[in-house]
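User: Please predict the structure of the protein below. I'd like the answer in structure-token form so I can feed it into my own downstream comparison script.

Assistant: Understood. Taking the following sequence of 448 residues as input:
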Amino acid sequence: MTTHLESGAQVSATTLLRFATAGSVDDGKSTLVGRLLHDSKSVLTDQLEAVEQASLNRGQEAPDLALLTDGLRAEREQGITIDVAYRYFATARRRFILADTPGHVQYTRNMVTGASTAELAVVLVDARNGVVEQTRRHAAVAALLRVPHVVLAVNKMDLVDYAEPVFAAIAEEFTAYAASLGVPEITAIPISALAGDNVVEPSAHMDWYGGPTVLEHLETVPVSHDLTACHARFPVQYVIRPQSAEHPDYRGYAGQIAAGVFRVGESVSVLPSGRTTTITGIDALGESVDIAWAPQSVTLRLADDIDISRGDLIAPADDAPPVTQDVEATVCHVADQPLSVGQRVLLKHTTRTVKAIVKDIPSRLTLDDLSQHPAPGQLVANDIGRVVVRTAEPLALDPYEDSRRTGSFLLIDPADGTTLSAGMAGAAFAGAAAEAVVAADDDAEWDF
């Protein structure tokens, strides 16, 4: 793969699209994914034979393509998706990483996992049922996670006689709802995953539809989230000091560039200390280079001997993120144990982990109608709510809307290391007014 960099832009011959599928139970997500893999010739012979045998064991004459993604035994027995199933495939035009996420309400946290790195979300709707509560829930999660492209796949059109008015009504309702959440691009496609209509090949039954098939849209949608165009951020993972005869004075700071571009000679700030210095060298793959960009793993050498350790963040001096100990964010609670006001946690942000306390939970979000339940006191599994967290040490945190990499964090149970919540700093939705967060007064009993 050839790479060329001009004015901070990275161009590759073959692009990669990460996308997630979501929808209510029995809307046909796994069948769509199976059809996509099968019709795009992305299924190995032994995989197809295993699916055919499993289908025969269940008394089905034709292969159940949903079994290509329902990998857990419990999923195959129930005919549902429980875990996030990842699949990797490619066409001549693009490479794909697909996350097939569950439809049940109790597995909302799994959709958050699958969509957290996605650049596109495919939300399925049963043409017979239209937009239901879980459809709105998945659209809201996609909006919260700032997924830039959403595809509405109106499935099972064969069961409504391929009627255009049915599709048009569903598309209009969903588009209005998703647009109100700030989703920047919504594409509606009528399909039949079981019959293969408009999945890979255009449908012969819907001549009234002139748009792309699902695969055509996946192959051509612009992957607009260019990490090299974002604010430059370098979380330090490791300090390299060989102190050998060959490199007696070498001091380098190793890590993966989270976003943006760094150049030799550039003035940078080291956070949270705020000290300013200059990049004197960049080492990549054992060689010195003048420029490096996300997501390369490199070692930076700096002009001054500054106290830098794992968890510090290096950023351009004129474009450094704010440093704070009061984090206001939206979190999706993923643990079975609740998250409560006053609870002590660990907050992991990039390579930095600090002690923290949940200072306030101003509201819990009801995703079906976007109403706010004020002061719930705690969040339970699959809840999404606003939190205010006070950290023991300062953090250099970007708003999530500016950077999905450096605007996200995890809340962790300090007792056993269990992940409690996935957090997104700043306002919840891009298109809606930011929720009013109740400002908590300073507490004299706090010990940090």
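That's the full token string. Confidence is low (pLDDT under 50) at residues 1-13, 72-82, 431-448.
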